[in-house]
């Protein structure tokens, strides 16, 4: 009689899983802080100052998101 068994191995030991989770949380918190800092700095500018930069107030969140992605990609 033939028996087929499959075993699925863990991708990493539980300790490494926790370490990866902690590292992921740290990375996301750092990205969020950078995003909020960028939004706050751009929001503090007047409409005239934003216009001088070629920006509109409605663009702030998108620009902050792009800046955060570019910064963390480096």
From TrEMBL:
Record domain YjiS-like: where: 27-61
Name of the protein in question: Uncharacterized protein YjiS (DUF1127 family)
Superkingdom of source: Bacteria
């Amino acid at each position: 009689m033939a028996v087929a068994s499959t075993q699925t191995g863990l991708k990493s030991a539980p300790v490494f899983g926790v370490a990866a989770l902690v590292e992921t949380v740290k990375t996301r918190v750092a990205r969020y802080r950078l995003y909020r800092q960028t939004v706050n700095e751009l929001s503090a500018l007047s409409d005239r100052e934003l216009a001088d930069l070629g920006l509109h107030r409605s663009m702030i969140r998108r620009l902050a998101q792009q800046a955060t992605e570019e910064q963390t990609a480096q």
